[in-house]
Amino acid sequence: MNEGLTKEEKKWFGTLLSYAKGSEGRLGVSVIFSMISLISGLVPYYLVYRILDRYIAGTLDREYVLHLSLAAVLAYLLKVICFGISTGISHYVAFNVLEGLRLKVADVFLKAPLGDVSAHSIGEIKGVIVDKIEDIEPPLAHVVPEGAGHILLPVVCFVALIMVDIRVALGALLSLPLGLVFMMLTFKLSGKNMTKYQEANAHMSSMIVEYVEGIEVIKAFGKAGVSYEKFAGAIKNYRDFVIEWMESTWVTMKLAFAFLPATLLGVVPVSIILVEKGSMTVSEMALSVMLAMSMVISMAKIEIFSNGLRQMQYTVLEIQRLINIKSLPEPEKEKLPDNYSIELKDVHFAYDEEDGEVLHGIDLSMKEGSFTALVGPSGGGKSTVAKLIARFGDVSSGSISIGGVDIKDLTVTSLADIVSFVTQDNFLFSRSVMENIRLGKPDATDEEVIKAAKSACCDEFINKLPDGYNTSAGEAGKRLSGGERQRIAIARMMLKNAPVVILDEATAFTDPENETKLQESIANLTRGKTLLVIAHRLSTIKNADRIVVLNDGRIEAVGTQEELMEKSPLYQRMWQAHIGARSWAAGNVKEA
């Protein structure tokens, strides 16, 4: 089970408990109560043996039966109470661990380069945060404390059998070696496929999420679409793999379950022979059978728990590999900038070494309070430049500084306070419109939120919603139109009031009626701020202080609107295409 694991990975259980927020010591208390519970369950067997022994001897009286029956009831109550305490404590620890793991994964994603996070599919991430972490709860809350007790119980029973008669104790072990052989074979066969199972499950989850998110397109094109085929194929492949896996271990697993707990196969015949020979009383035989039956229950539980423990190990290792995503390095002592000019020096960047560079030596300066626009063909690197300034990832080489301070010398939190970033496809959370805007400034009053909404031309449509500002935006903001989501995102940015503002086609979904108002609002908000705008509609940035033309990851030209119209053939073509597109209409095509 531990083949190919590093030393750190072999400490997976300690790593798991490190997320218990100081409650890991309680798990040991839970184990102790579990052991007391199981040992208490043996007391009634011993008392039955004492009653049976007196009955056979003919010396049994009512008072003796009442006393021992009362003791048996008390022992059973102790068993139940200790079991309840044990499971209560273990569940407390388990849910603390689940909370710690989920918060850790969220924190890792917040501090990791965006490219590293995006490398994992939504289905995989959802599968880890929701499903796999949740899967840890049953084995952690039950397997660990109960498993420890069920390991101790057979040992106690075996010692008790030795005290009765060592021959009976040895008889209880007759089926054990064969059961262990079949169990080890099952583990060996199963272990080879566990990693493949995790991968198949993650792939299926990813396809399901993709299918649900793309249901609108799939409904438009029917089952013949590629997404539906991928979805159906992933489920079929998962089914086929699991069935094949189960078939490969079915025989050995069933034999292990049959032989490992079969202590009675040896105890009963040996006890009968000893009773016939006069070496054992009938009451001792009854006690031996009861102890052997207790061993049967524990051995069966151990088999089940061992599978749960192995599953938990694989799950923890998978989560740990996700948690080990390298975070963006942060300075031990940061230096805050005294102004908000931005400078990129010889910036090179590649999302992946195999795919090659996306940016090739970008040199760009933006003065504090200036309005800079990035334009160029799709795939030219405009959004990449903007994301690097916000430090969604680190440059491969070169540097980016704000106010003369390298952004690597700022903490992620400080940089987030300095830079506002608005894209054309903004995400809204499934909470009220008011709270979605308030994310820009968590301590803002309702009046400040409403003021920002009015500035972003949101107030009118928000007041038409069923509950106004208290209306839920729906999952991912789907209760609102694209233009409405975008205006709420801009209102959020206005409320934040950061000194550096990056707009990535921030008015793309805005209707013509409100675009002029919104442009004026943005102009008022960004006055005196360092503004970087990525635009495809060139008319929105023709008044920029500087327009930077990016093409194939390189700066092709820099200048004002007038200068670029004179010296940049690429900008001229883009402008003419833009002017032509504004006069285009569907069906307005002349026949040749």
Question: How would you describe the overall organization of this protein?
Answer:
The chain is α/β, with parallel strands linked by helices and 592 residues long. Helices cover 62% and strands 9% of the residues. It has helices at 7-10, 12-17, 24-40, 43-57, 62-111, 114-118, 122-164, 166-172, 176-213, 215-221, 226-259, 264-277, 282-323, 382-389, 412-418, 433-438, 446-455, 459-463, 482-496, 512-526, 561-567, 569-582; strands at residues 342-349, 359-366, 371-375, 397-402, 405-406, 419-422, 500-504, 530-534, 546-551, 554-559. The chain has a 6-stranded mixed beta sheet with strand order 6-7-8-3-9-10, with helices on both faces. Helix 17 packs across helix 19 (482-496). The longest helix has 50 residues, at 62-111. It starts with 6 loop residues before the first helix and ends in a 10-residue tail after the last helix.
Write the layout of secondary structure elements.
Elements: H1 7-10, H2 12-17, H3 24-40, H4 43-57, H5 62-111, H6 114-118, H7 122-164, H8 166-172, H9 176-213, H10 215-221, H11 226-259, H12 264-277, H13 282-323, E1 342-349, E2 359-366, E3 371-375, H14 382-389, E4 397-402, E5 405-406, H15 412-418, E6 419-422, H16 433-438, H17 446-455, H18 459-463, H19 482-496, E7 500-504, H20 512-526, E8 530-534, E9 546-551, E10 554-559, H21 561-567, H22 569-582
Parallel strand pairs: 3-8, 3-9, 6-7, 7-8
Antiparallel strand pairs: 1-2, 1-4, 4-5, 9-10
Q: Which terms would index this structure?
A:
six-stranded mixed β-sheet, alpha/beta, four-stranded antiparallel β-sheet
